[in-house]
Amino acid sequence: MTEVRLRFAPSPTGYLHIGGLRTALYNYLFAKANQGKMVLRIEDTDRTRFVEGAIEGLIQSLKWAGIDYDEGVFMEDGKVVEKGDYGPYIQSERLDIYQKYVDQLLEDGHAYYCFCSKDRLDHLREEQKIKGQIPRYDGLCRSIPLEEARERIAKGEKAVVRLKLPENMDIKFHDAVRGDITINTNEMDDQVLMKSDGFPTYHMAVVVDDHLMKITHIVRGEEWLPSTPKHIYLYDCLGWEKPQYVHLPGVLNSDHKKLSKRQGDVSVEDFKNRGYLPEGLINYLALVGWSPKDNEEILSMKDLIDQFSFDRVSKAGGVFDKNKLDWVNAHYIKELPIDDLVDLSIPELVKAGLISQDFAQGHRDWLKLLLETVRESLSRIEEVPEKTAFLFGDLEVTEEEAKDQLASDQIKDLLGALKEELEAVDQVDEEFAKTVMKRIQKKTGIKGKGLYMPTRAAITGNVHGPELSNIMELLGKDKMLERINQILNK
Ligand code: GLU
Q1: Partners of 200 in beta bridges
Q2: CA distances (Å), origin 90, targets 93, 140, 321
Q3: Tell me: the pLDDT tens digits for 144-202?
Q4: Which pLDDT tens digit goes with each residue over 119-133?
Q5: Is 477 marked active-site?
């Protein structure tokens, strides 16, 4: 059986968009589900859109997300390297390869040189628009004999190479999501295959590379569907076996429009910086446009690989729902090993000015307890400062309910008893924190809500929150006394 081979082929024009990550993910899942290989190829033939550092960024985002592809471009010691038997994997390094196949198409009469100037083409397009026609090349240079064209180029004239589409021919192909598709060549344009600077266009390069890299399945965004008939025709001209096509519906925002930068974060880097875990983002993204058989929602990469198939990819665009993403991410935060949670949280706490780097180094156990205490309430790592701020600095009582609790008749007795308990020990350890409330209950006779709510209000400023004994341990003796005195001396 032929080996299943897929590729993700981004252009280095900026960051990795969340929709691009989903495309990469579906490629990866299908490759792994079928014991196949996944290639990362860089499509950089449009030099005007090249962004410095974009290749590195794409590789790092994929690595962070856990898309562990097999071949293509990687980063090693801070440098981009290429690995695999079908390289080079960066299109600008493959120009002579494309030239060879463009020459073949010219020789076989499937392509021709076009000398039309930009001015002429602009003018033609304008005229066609005015007449209400679809703008397309009018074929002026189609009949120039190849020899004559070559002589003109040798004399210094500039030309592009265009695909010579036959008239009125149906081009058919099957898409795993969209089904059978037929397009007539009368609705298509004589696509430019090679620009005058010797760079191929996307259409030429993608077909040559997918063939030479033995790609069996092309999984990409549906914005490429209109290009596919051109590719199909090129495969036929070159006598090559065609891959299978899978065009994925878009990732949409809540108004069912394409998810775009204007509505907020769209780059994988943004999601990483906001404290989404790769496991959470990947799990959620997999579900945007695909569903597992039993509609399970929490799926690890391994579960996804086990269950993924193209027949459950939906035709309609998938709506990207941040609340659902938060819910999935919260699940993975709960499962994260505590040391990892601490490591991810330290930069956030430092950035918020709540702790210093030095403090973080000397207080690992305290930080572990801190994060164990609040992790249930976290959807994203960036929330750590806001969820823990009540433990730092002076007591702040802003909640009305907390103020009411602190105004209760029994508050003096309660806090007085707690103060006495605190003064009798060297430090607040787990044993003290877990047993002190029982002793206060005995001493004061105050029970239940009347016992816990005012105490919590006095030491945290709120009436609700995480485990009280943990909070006592985190605050420690001095800070608790300080807060109690702050209330008693008012
Ligand atoms: N280079 C194209 C992009 O940037 C890839 C299209 C394809 O997968 O064929 O999306």
Answers
A1: 194
A2: 6, 34, 34
A3: 999 999 999 999 999 999 999 999 999 999 999 999 999 999 999 999 999 999 999 99
A4: 999 999 999 999 998
A5: no
Ligand 1 close to Cβ of residue 220 (< 6 A): yes
> Residue 72 — left, alpha, or beta (φ > 0 → left; ψ -120 to 50 → alpha)?
left
Please name the amino acid found at residue 375: R
At 231 the pLDDT is 98
pLDDT at 295: 86
Side chain identity at 96, as an amino acid letter? D
Given a contact cutoff of 8 angstroms between Cβ atoms, the answer to whether 368 and 338 are in contact is: yes
How many residues are listed for the chain in this entry? 490
CA-to-CA distance for 296 and 306, rounded, in angstroms? 13
11 CA: nearest ligand 1 atom: 4
Using the CB atoms, write b or e for 75-91: b if 16+ within 10 Å: eeeeeeebebebbbbbb
Measured by CA distance, the residue closest to atom 3 of ligand 1 is 10
Global pTM value: 0.93
Tell me if 207 CB under 6 Å of ligand 1.
no
Roughly how many angstroms between the first and final C-alpha of the chain, as a whole number?
Answer: 81
The torsion region of residue 174 among left (phi > 0), alpha (psi -120 to 50) and beta comes to beta
CB 231 within 8 A of CB 20: no
Tokens of 317: 């665009």
Q: In angstroms, rounded to a whole number, what is the distance separating the alpha carbons of residues 252 and 368?
A: 38
CA 256 / ligand 1 centre spacing (Å): 23
CB of 10 within 6 A of ligand 1: the answer is yes
**Per annotation, catalytic residue among 100, 172, 261, 438:** 261
Q: Write the CB contacts of 490 (distance below 8 Å, at least 6 apart in sequence).
A: none
- For the stretch 473-476, contacts whose Cβ atoms lie closer than 8 Å and that sit 24 or more positions apart, written own/partner, are 473/369, 473/428, 473/429, 473/430, 473/433, 474/366, 474/369, 474/370, 474/373, 474/391, 475/391, 475/428, 476/427, 476/428
